[in-house]
Amino acid sequence: MKVTFVYPGYFKDTGDGWISAGLCLLSSSIKQRGHESSLVDFRGLNSWDEYRERLKILKPQVLAVTAATVYFPVALRAAEIAKQLMPDLIVVIGGIHATLMPEEVSSHNCFDHIVLGEGEVSFTELIDALESGKSEKRIIQGKRPELDSLPFADRDLFDTQEYPFFKDLPLPFVTIISSRGCPYQCTFCQPAEKMVFGAHVRKRTVGHVIGELKLLREKYNFQSLMIHDDCLTADKAWVREFCREYKLNGFTQPWVCQVKANHVCSSPELIGEMKGAGLKAVHIGFESGNQRMLDLMKKGCTVEQNYEAYKILKQFGLEIQGMFIIGLPTETKEEVGDTIRMIKSMQLERPVLTFFTPYPGTELYEYCKEKGLLTITDYSDFDRSKMSPKIKGIDYNELLKIADSVAPGARLKNIVKSGFRFLFGESYGNGLIEFVKKQKNRNDRVWPLSAGQK
Ligand code: SF4
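Above: the input record for the complex with iron/sulfur cluster. Below: its predicted structure, written as tokens.
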């Protein structure tokens, strides 16, 4: 079968420099069964007409659309247009939004099949079944795969390079995921994350990850890496083994990962081992400088741990992207002030400040719904980096002023207008401009159709 994947975004959106690991794994899974795959990446398109042209060239038998909530309107329109253009086309949707909101998604007739949860096994079975003319259920619960049994991600699906948030990391840069699931209960994230990946954390073996890295070294000569797990440092033994094997196998490329403040504090020596194996920078969700807000978020960390973790990471000479959330339900001006004081007291290479966004499927979404606080009507406002009003009872003008006080001159709305996400901070200065330019070049460079598709 000829399957075209759709990665929805907003046209020429320069915000996300990473591939979709999910789509790449679906692509390699179906290719293993002899099917063909191609991609339409909306981040590189200019218009719906361009999308129509791509479809006419690619002539898929199956269109497989994924979508996070923020991009669901794009996914829906993409499916509707494809159905109008090719009435025999089978359209399948999967991904986070479909998994969390199956009723909403299934109310749209343009979706012939809806795959919930993880798709590698069940989507592949569906494509096999469609090829042999068998009929399949409309809503399919994805079977959880044994991660080591999956083929390596088909990165060539995305005809583009990935870019790191830390500007000093050398290119080519790649992202890799070694596990699925998270043991924590953060209320702005759970239980949505568990609905997608299940209640238990599943890990690839270190050997499997190193095997993929060897392939990436051979094929792309990658020069830096992000291990993109939700909670890598929860399994210390795994991280230790990885650090050992990374060095033993001759890898010297610097890498980045996410860490959690309580893990950093409980095992500073682990951070030392990671640093010794090339860890260069970390992403860390400090989230708040106020304990009541950390508790509301069930972050599992204290304010003191946030400060302590910062100190430890700095002692190891690591660059830090620190992430913070303001505008939480019931948060007072003084409590926001605690977070701003925390940001200002830290020398973060990348401070990232966002407004709380109530994502469907999360505990805080349900809380906001129950209290009548939900206001988002435009799906694009589910973008957590968009500094737009998210819930009732928050003075967003005040929050924007506070945001400006943290990053003088870096008007968020301008950054957002340019399609650029997440960046926020006086320390970033020229790096930001350079990064935006790179992203623009990336789009100019990589999005024209490749020779085989013309
Ligand atoms: S925010 Fe991160 S640590 Fe918290 S539950 Fe979600 S994935 Fe886990």
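Notes for the reader.
The longest strand covers residues 279-287.
Residues 182, 184, 186, 189-190, 193, 230-231 surround iron/sulfur cluster (CB under 6 Å).
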